[in-house]
Specification:
Distance between the termini: 15 Å
Helix content: over 70%
Number of helices: 12
Order of helices and strands: HHHHHHHHHHHH
Shape: globular
Number of strands: 0
Length: about 350
């Protein structure tokens, strides 16, 4: 009996070693792997979004094949309408904003010159003037670079949506096959698992499925609501490019704690060049939307927590963000929740 337990522990250690090596290979070739798996990730996300609707039709005695066809057709119609109504406006906003970035850089430089002239004409001692000018110039230049850097990165992320169009179409076909043959996939994967591990793996996979489903469906719903509210708010206060800035804010909101700040920076960077009051109003828009999100939207939609301590969330966001950028920050929380589920099951098996 003792020997059997020893073999079991050796098997677990070997599995952990293989998973670690696999993780290193994935990290070392992350760019290539990302290109390959992107349409599959999109397909899985679409499948998670559509599956509750398909399950609802199945409860009404509609066959799964017909349910997939109906929901898939409705999904394609929604996407076509979105492309025709929203994408032209979004594209116009993006191209106009990118073309004006040099002008905004010049305006920031003019702001530095204005501050310098005001200090020079003041009655302050020359040494104090030099210190103020040096500090203000350095800080404004740093702020300019910081704001424009975030703005360019945000625009790059939005612009990247267009390059993913073919992957998205491919993802739709993957989602259809995934939804159609999900039971077959489960059976085939289950057959590859040793019998003494099968129950634990199936239970773990079920818990992971719940985590992923709650995260994808909840976050995309919150993203859409926040993006719409911020777009409306920025439009009301008269901030240019409100649509693209609202979408940036909605996407950034997926990142816990840091997301609202990241999403607000581009809008404030644009608004402040019109007037300080408009920048203040833009900040007020984001504060109000965040209060609505934190008090009503997220608690209602994300009713099932990821089960992670706030310090853990902050750590994984910083860790994944350091190595994988914005994408890492977005995926940090669900990955941590999945790893927690797996780690818990492994410890239960060992102990």
């Amino acid at each position: 009996m003792k020997t059997k337990n020893n073999y079991k522990k050796i098997g677990i250690i070997a599995s952990l070693f293989v998973l670690t090596a696999l993780g290193y290979l994935i990290f070392a070739n992350s760019a290539k792997i990302a290109t390959i798996i992107t349409p599959f990730i999109i397909g899985i996300i679409i499948a998670y979004l559509l599956n509750p609707l398909i399950a609802g039709l199945e409860k009404r005695k509609v066959s799964r094949g017909i349910a997939i066809s109906l929901i898939g057709l409705l999904f394609i119609i929604v996407i076509v309408v979105f492309l025709n109504l929203i994408i032209p406006i979004l594209y116009s906003n993006i191209t106009d904003l990118i073309s004006n970035i040099p002008k905004y850089a010049t305006q920031y430089n003019n702001l530095v010159s204005w501050v310098q002239s005001q200090v020079n004409y003041s009655m302050l001692p020359q040494q104090v003037k030099d210190i103020i000018i040096s500090q203000v110039k350095g800080n404004i230049n740093y702020l300019q670079g910081f704001l424009l850097s975030i703005l360019k990165n945000s625009l790059g992320a939005i612009s990247g949506i267009f390059s993913f169009f073919l992957n998205f179409l491919f993802g739709i076909f993957i989602a259809v096959y995934f939804l159609k043959d999900i039971d077959l996939f489960k059976m085939q994967i289950s057959g590859l698992i040793p019998k003494n591990w099968r129950n634990m793996v199936n239970t773990t996979a079920g818990e992971i499925n719940v985590v992923i489903s709650n995260y994808i469906q909840g976050q995309l719903t919150v993203l859409a609501i926040v993006a719409v509210l911020e777009t409306i708010g920025l439009t009301i206060v008269g901030v240019k490019y409100s649509l693209v800035l609202g979408i940036i804010g909605g996407i950034a909101n997926i990142i816990p704690y840091f997301g609202p700040f990241i999403g607000a920076v581009p809008a404030v960077a644009i608004a402040i060049l019109d007037s300080p009051m408009k920048a203040l109003l833009a900040v007020l828009v984001f504060v109000i939307v965040q209060q609505i999100d934190n008090s009503y939207v997220s608690p209602k939609i994300m009713s099932q927590s990821m089960g992670l301590h706030p310090l853990t969330i902050i750590f994984v966001i910083l860790f994944f963000g350091t190595f994988f950028g914005i994408a890492g920050m977005i995926l940090a929380v669900p990955l941590a929740a999945i790893l927690k589920v797996i780690g818990k099951k492994i410890l239960e098996k060992i102990v």
